[in-house]
């Protein structure tokens, strides 16, 4: 530590730059991981929010919610907690504001009903609770929304957090409102129609679905959201490659850093300072540099997250970031250990030029 | 007491017609409290002799014995220990760590070796070498001569039983050179160390008890009567 620390103290600028490089690399890894996470999350936020274990859909629907049509009564045959869900996609307009949304028709006594972060829950016809994303876009409580697919008008009475489905912000409404929007004139005949029935049960396989219906677990349902799996795979690969390449760069960088000092190590070896002492010093120094760089990257990533507009889909997973951070530090130390092998091989005689 | 002994030590570099016999078969003994000068022309093998004696390189044939320990049997790790514990090097090229202050050069040695000079002895050493004002400076801020004196302090700080000096006065003016020789002589006598000094400057041999001349890898003792006290006033 004595050597490691004194060297850093003497060459402050040089080591500040080294830490800067390590910081930038970890910042890049952390930030892009956050973006990839956020992007993947856009699709599933609302599904995570309703916290169901599975969902019942028609067999013909190919596990796609909009393609599935079933009756509210189908819930009665399920021996578990259920919540009905009607869903349709449309475009809402309020003044100059225009936004594609997903409307969820729900029973307010069932568990899909969201926590309202501002305003109140819908209680009357054509009232909706909107994803707070709309709020950031400029929509306000009391705004009247006209729809592209219906003559009905909706009114925002409240906002709720983190509610996007397949990247579209969700408007939660009563089943009645949903039916009106969806079927217009034909609302009466279709009053019991929904798209799916969300189920909470510890053991889904113990449940029997009525004929022509199938129970899908939540994970499978999410993976079958349009584009979700393909997008996730692409992002995951990007992150893995980024990570492997960054880690390699860090290892090579720290190796080169030590190899540059070979002569000096030779001088110390000539005096009888052991390989072990020099090796410990190099590893300790690398640890200091890598830890400071990665921790700075970690903190600044989170700070940057706070200042980003909400439209940027970024979601930081602290635990995953910590793991990436630890691996980056470990890889840096690995690079240092490689350079230690070089130190061991130095002939002190060559270094002193006798 | 014999502190340092070379037994039929020989060093050759290269093979075939490129073969250089840097050190021909050499037998050599040095006692505690002896100050020995090694003189000879450039390229004659003085540095080769000195680094073999100090365990920095192994002889092609023969053995080196330091305080009863035969170096031939030692691995690099043990050899490094011998260098740390028994030998103080003052080398032709300055051997200072660039990012440590003069004082921290000493402190580094204190970290790795238990038995060093105490604080008061270190102060005296600084004074004797005229570097007490330099203790917080880095090597890059010192003159060549100052660096050389710090290197001497470093060699003596670890309380070695053998001091090996390769041209220790090369970058000093003659006044400083005499002072350094005087200091080495004083240390040799008071601590009963064995000191080998390689030098071109024949005026400096007056400080030594014995003088050897190296010619083409052959070491031969010269007639020499050490002068009483300090040779130069
Ligand atoms: N590593 C080596 N490989 C090949 N030849 C070497 C090596 N080291 C020294 N020699 C040769 O051995 C001979 C003795 O070299 P050495 O350095 O001992 O001379 P020296 O007496 O110290 O000279 P100087 O007074 O110039 O320092 C020289 O001819 C040199 O070229
Ligand atoms: Mg030489």
CATH topology of chain B: Rossmann fold
Helix content of chain B: 25-40%
Amino-to-carboxy terminus distance of chain B: 32 Å
Bound heterogens, unique: adenosine-5'-triphosphate, magnesium ion
Main beta sheet of chain B: 6 strands, mixed
- Whole-number count of domains of chain A: 2
Q: Which spans of chain A of ≥5 residues are poorly predicted at pLDDT below 50?
A: none
Helix share bin of chain A: 40-55%
Number of separate strands of chain A: 13
CATH homologous superfamily heading of chain B: P-loop containing nucleotide triphosphate hydrolases
Chain-wise SSE layout:
The complex is a heterodimer of chains A (354) and B (233).
Chain A: H1 2-10, H2 12-50, E1 54-58, E2 70-71, E3 81-94, E4 97-106, E5 118-119, E6 127-131, H3 132-137, E7 144-147, E8 153-160, E9 164-165, E10 168-174, H4 175-183, E11 193-194, E12 196-200, E13 213-217, H5 218-223, H6 228-259, H7 262-270, H8 275-307, H9 318-345, H10 348-352
Parallel strand pairs in A: 4-10, 6-8
Antiparallel strand pairs in A: 1-12, 1-13, 2-11, 3-4, 3-7, 3-12, 5-8, 6-10, 7-8, 9-10
Chain B: E1 2-13, E2 20-31, E3 35-39, H1 46-53, E4 61-66, E5 69-70, H2 76-86, E6 87-90, H3 102-112, H4 119-129, H5 144-157, E7 162-166, H6 174-191, E8 194-198, E9 210-215, E10 218-221
Parallel strand pairs in B: 3-8, 3-9, 6-7, 7-8
Antiparallel strand pairs in B: 1-2, 1-4, 4-5, 9-10
The structure holds adenosine-5'-triphosphate and magnesium ion.
């Amino acid at each position: 530590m004595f050597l490691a620390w004194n060297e850093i103290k003497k060459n402050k600028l040089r080591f500040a730059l080294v830490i800067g490089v390590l910081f930038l690399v970890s910042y890049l890894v952390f930030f892009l991981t956050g973006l990839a996470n956020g992007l993947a999350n856009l699709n599933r936020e609302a599904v995570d929010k309703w916290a169901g274990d599975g969902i019942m859909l028609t067999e013909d629907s190919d596990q796609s919610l909009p393609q599935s049509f079933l009756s509210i009564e189908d819930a009665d045959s399920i021996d578990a907690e259920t919540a009905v869900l009607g869903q349709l996609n449309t475009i809402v307009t309020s003044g100059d504001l225009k936004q594609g949304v997903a409307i969820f028709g729900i029973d307010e006594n069932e568990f899909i009903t969201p926590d309202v972060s501002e305003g109140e829950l819908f209680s009357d016809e054509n009232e909706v609770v909107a994803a707070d994303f709309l709020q950031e876009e400029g929509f306000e409580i009391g705004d009247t929304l006209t729809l592209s697919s219906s003559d009905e008008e909706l009114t925002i009475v409240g906002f709720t957090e983190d509610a996007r489905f397949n990247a579209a912000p969700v408007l939660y409404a009563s089943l009645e409102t949903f039916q009106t929007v969806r079927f217009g004139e034909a609302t009466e005949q279709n009053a019991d129609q929904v798209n799916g029935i969300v189920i909470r049960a510890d053991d889904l396989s113990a449940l029997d679905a009525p004929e022509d219906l199938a129970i899908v677990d939540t994970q499978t349902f999410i993976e079958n959201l349009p584009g979700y799996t393909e997008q996730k795979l692409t992002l995951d690969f990007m992150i893995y490659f980024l990570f492997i390449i960054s880690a390699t760069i860090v290892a090579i960088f720290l190796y080169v850093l030590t190899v540059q000092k070979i002569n000096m190590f030779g001088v110390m070896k000539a005096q009888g300072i052991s390989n072990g002492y020099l090796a410990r010093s190099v590893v300790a120094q690398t640890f200091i540099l890598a830890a400071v760089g990665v921790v700075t990257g970690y903190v600044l990533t989170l700070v940057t997250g706070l200042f980003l507009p909400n439209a940027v889909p970024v979601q930081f997973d602290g635990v995953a970031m910590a793991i990436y951070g630890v691996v980056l530090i470990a890889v840096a130390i690995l690079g240092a250990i490689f350079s230690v092998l070089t130190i061991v091989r130095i002939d002190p005689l060559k270094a002193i030029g006798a | 007491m014999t502190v340092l002994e070379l037994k039929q030590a020989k060093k050759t570099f290269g093979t075939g017609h490129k073969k250089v016999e840097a050190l021909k078969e050499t037998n050599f003994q040095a006692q505690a409290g002896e100050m020995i000068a090694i003189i000879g022309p450039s390229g004659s093998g003085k540095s080769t002799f000195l680094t073999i004696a100090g365990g920095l390189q192994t002889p092609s044939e023969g053995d080196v014995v330091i305080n009863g320990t035969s170096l031939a049997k030692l691995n690099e790790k043990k050899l490094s220990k011998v260098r740390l514990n028994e030998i103080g090097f003052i080398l032709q090229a300055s051997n200072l760590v660039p990012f440590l202050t003069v004082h921290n050069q000493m402190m580094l040695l204190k970290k790795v070796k238990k038995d060093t000079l105490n604080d008061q002895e270190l102060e005296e050493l600084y004074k004797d070498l005229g570097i007490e004002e330099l203790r917080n400076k880095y090597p890059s801020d010192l003159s060549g001569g100052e660096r050389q004196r710090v290197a001497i302090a470093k060699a003596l700080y670890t309380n070695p039983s053998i001091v090996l000096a390769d041209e220790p006065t090369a970058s000093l003016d003659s006044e400083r050179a005499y002072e350094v020789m005087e200091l080495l002589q004083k240390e040799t006598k008071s601590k009963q160390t064995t000191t080998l000094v390689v030098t071109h400057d024949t005026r400096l041999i007056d400080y030594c008890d014995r003088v050897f001349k190296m010619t083409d890898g052959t070491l031969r003792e010269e007639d020499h009567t050490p002068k009483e006290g300090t040779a130069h006033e």
